[in-house]
Design goal:
With 332 residues, this protein is mostly helical. The chain folds into two domains: 140 residues, no CATH class; 142 residues, no CATH class. It is built from 16 helices and four strands. Strands 1-2 form a two-stranded antiparallel ribbon. Strand 3 and strand 4 form a beta hairpin. Helix 9 packs across helix 10.
C-alpha cells in the first residue's frame, strides 16, 4: 500500500495498541472480575468486594457530557490529563462495571496504551520465560530506531504505566474486554475503533471474510457518526482508506478526507492533536507553526481542493442526516 496511508495507519495503530486487539481473545460483554478490586498499591493488589473500594477516593468529577450521552463525567479530559493510569483505571473501574459505556471505553484506552506502549519500550521477554523491565535510559535509547515517540514521550509512558504494568495479573481486566463492552453498548468512539480493526482485516482475510469485515466496518462507522463527534470522524480516515478498494489514489483521498472533515468542525482541530504530535515526530517537514490542516494540505498536494470540497460535503450530509454507509470509503 502507498507510503502516506501506511504512515498514517501505522501511527494510529501504534497509538491505539491494535496489535493487542488481535492478540487478546474476545472477552465477555463485561469482564469477569467480580471478585477483583484493585488496591491502591500495584505490588499487592487486594482481591475483595467488586465495586465499593474502587470508587471511594477516586470518583470522576462531573463535567461536560460525553458524546452520545445526555450528561456525565468528562472521561476524555481525565484520560488526557492523567499522569498515572493506575489511578485513572481505578477511578473508571467501578462505573465501567456498572455499565457506563464511556467509562468502559476510556478504561480500555488507558489499559491499551499501557499494554502496547509500555511493553514496546520497557518489557524484555527473556529466554527463560520471564520478563525484564528496561530502565528509562535503556527505553529512551530505543527512540533512535522507533522514532514515532520521543525520549520525552517514553518518559511519559513510564510515568503513566509503570505501576499498571508492574502487576502480574491486570486487576482491571484487559483493554480488549472493555472495548468489546463499550462497542456492544454502541458507544460511538468504541464503534469507530472497532470499525478500524475490522477495516484493517479487509486486506488480511479471504474473500468471504473480507466482505463480512467490510460490511461490519461500514456499519460500525456509520452508527458511530450519529454522535457528530469530530474525534469519531478523525478515526474514520483509516477505515475509509481500507474500504476504498484497489484504487490507491482514492484511498489516499479517503485517508485525508475524514480527518479534514473533523477539523472543519472544530476551532483548533483538537481531535487531531494527538495524531499531529505523533506524525510530526516522523515527518521532518513539520513546522512549529503548522496546524493539522496545514499538514493535510501539504500531504494532499494537488488533491487538497478536491478533498476539502468533499470534506465539506460530508459534513453537510452528516448534519442533514443524508449520509449513507456507501459514503464511507466509496462503493467498493
Amino acid at each position: 500500500m502507498f507510503r502516506v496511508v501506511l504512515t498514517l495507519v501505522c501511527a494510529a495503530l501504534v497509538a491505539a495498541g491494535v496489535w493487542w486487539w488481535f492478540r487478546e481473545p474476545s472477552g465477555a460483554a463485561v469482564p469477569a472480575q467480580a471478585e477483583a478490586t484493585p488496591a491502591a498499591s500495584p505490588s499487592t493488589p487486594r482481591l475483595a468486594n467488586a465495586t465499593a473500594a474502587v470508587a471511594a477516593d477516586h470518583a470522576p468529577q462531573p463535567a461536560r457530557s460525553e458524546p452520545g450521552t445526555t450528561q456525565g463525567p468528562d472521561y476524555r479530559a481525565q484520560f488526557r490529563g492523567a499522569d498515572d493510569y493506575w489511578d485513572l483505571a481505578q477511578s473508571l473501574y467501578a462505573p465501567a462495571r456498572q455499565g457506563d459505556a464511556a467509562a468502559q471505553y476510556w478504561l480500555s484506552r488507558a489499559l491499551g496504551y499501557c499494554e502496547a506502549m509500555y511493553d514496546w519500550y520497557f518489557i524484555v521477554h527473556q529466554s527463560n520465560g520471564t520478563v525484564r523491565h528496561r530502565t528509562l535510559d535503556e527505553a529512551q535509547q530505543l527512540t533512535a530506531s522507533r522514532p514515532v515517540f520521543t525520549a520525552d514521550d517514553v518518559r511519559d509512558i513510564q510515568k503513566r504505566c509503570q505501576r499498571l504494568r508492574s502487576v502480574e495479573v491486570p486487576p482491571f481486566g484487559t483493554s480488549r474486554e472493555w472495548l468489546d463492552s463499550a462497542t456492544a453498548a454502541n458507544y460511538p468512539l468504541a464503534q469507530a475503533s472497532a470499525a478500524r480493526y475490522r477495516a484493517v482485516q479487509v486486506r488480511q482475510t479471504d474473500l468471504d471474510a473480507a466482505h463480512s469485515a467490510r460490511d461490519d466496518a461500514r456499519r460500525l462507522a456509520f452508527d458511530a457518526l450519529r454522535s457528530h463527534d469530530p474525534e469519531v470522524m478523525a478515526q474514520l480516515g483509516d477505515v475509509a482508506a481500507n474500504l476504498a478498494g484497489d484504487d490507491p489514489a482514492e484511498a489516499r483521498k479517503q485517508q485525508w478526507l475524514w480527518p479534514l472533515a473533523a477539523c472543519l468542525r472544530e476551532a483548533k482541530c483538537e481531535s487531531m492533536s494527538e495524531w499531529m504530535h505523533l506524525f510530526c515526530n516522523i515527518d521532518t517537514q513539520c513546522q512549529p507553526f503548522e496546524t493539522p490542516v496545514d499538514v493535510i494540505r501539504r500531504q494532499a498536494g494537488n488533491d487538497f481542493d478536491e478533498i476539502e470540497r468533499r470534506a465539506r460535503e460530508l459534513n453537510e450530509k452528516i448534519d442533514a442526516g443524508t449520509l449513507e454507509e456507501g459514503d464511507i470509503g466509496g462503493r467498493g
